[in-house]
Amino acid sequence: MDSELRLQLLRALVRDRQFLKSSWRDVDPTTFAEKEERTIAKAALGFWEKYESPIGPMLRSAIDEEISKNGMAVKTKQKLKDLVNLIQAQKLEPVSLLALQDRIKSLKHNSFYETALDEIITAHEAHEFNVEMLREIIEKAAIELQTGKVEARDYLDQLENRITRRNHWDELKKYPMLLIDPLDEKVRSIGRGHIGLLLAPYSSGKGLALAYIATAYAMQGLKVLFITLEDPLDQVEDRLDASLTGLPLSRLQQLPNRLRKRFRRIKKQMRGRIHIVDGTEGGWTLSQIEKLWEQERQAGFVADVIIIDYDDEIECEKQFKGESARRMEFAWVYRRMRRMAAKLDVILWTAAQASRGAEGKRIVTGKDTAEDISKVRKVTFAIGIGGDPREENTKTLYVIRHRLDRSRFAVDIKTNFRCGLFYDREATLAAKRRPRRPAS
Description:
This protein folds into two domains: 1-166; 171-433, P-loop containing nucleotide triphosphate hydrolases (Rossmann fold, 3-Layer(aba) Sandwich), CATH 3.40.50.300. Helix content is 48%, strand content 11%. The chain has helices spanning 3-15, 17-23, 35-51, 59-69, 74-88, 97-125, 131-144, 159-168, 171-174, 181-184, 206-219, 233-245, 256-270, 286-298, 325-344, 374-378, 425-433; strands spanning 195-200, 224-228, 274-278, 305-309, 347-353, 381-387, 394-402, 410-414. Helix 1 packs parallel to helix 3, helix 2 packs parallel to helix 6 (97-125) and helix 3 packs across helix 5.
């Protein structure tokens, strides 16, 4: 491997969850030319094997521990620290994930061919080559050169590994909160590889809810790729501006200085964690969304969360005919969406339209799905958004389905659509403190 490839590979081992998930077994630390590179590769691979998480920002402390444990020369220590700084630097431009995977497999195969050929030639020259040796090489090739290998674990022998992995979990990192107190108090949200769905009638706040979820994740340090397929880009940006600064949507134009001041403070805290893509021109498929994620990744923005606003605008790549064509399209889209979330190892949220019968209902359930109720069965977490027409600023969130926690309960929250707030925390907590009126 040349120096540039080795550097890109080390960067992927340290920081790239998707690369580690697919290719960590294909990387042999001994193939790195420099001792410092081998040290970092071993640390990154060992951390992933133990905790199923990239070593990331913990690399520096792991290397410091390695230095103190194995007394190294001053020059080696400095080279190791310089290499860590280079790998962690944002200026290192990432290459295509697929290209890196293919290159590693190609190098592994070439290395195997050369080693096997050397063994055959050496044995032949020593008159020791025989059928048994050829059979061993062929059997080894079947294992080493296999592509698309599926890992099967011995469940009963892996208990200690699972305990170690869970001890390393930060529950909030694995299952980030939605920052909606009444909901977070009762259930945990979803993690990587899972899909969340908001189900609501027309003009009930689906777009605001997705915008709020985007800001909630960004506040917790996650990178969010927000794809708007229905509402214009400027409308989504206005919602985010109002939601983050607490200024009324209608007064953003009248209060530019206050907006700048508040936004400057928010920007420091969030450091470019939300990228918005305008897909309102139509024609967006899940394959295009996957390519977009990879494009952003190559530009240095590795999204942890994908939010699609909303499901009805996703083009189905497979054609169906007959009366049930639309229902079958939704079933295909949600099945494909689930696979995409697992493949990219991201949290995915979208929204769906409820039926006309759900308008004005306080509790919106799976039966209120407009086109296909099976979409609720295909997601991990589905929330119905209902409300009382007599209380404009009150919304009821009903947990229709939660595969990882309890389901079929409702919580009330206060909203402030005027300020672009799907969840008004202060108003919700104030309403909770208010004594309930005795039943008449």
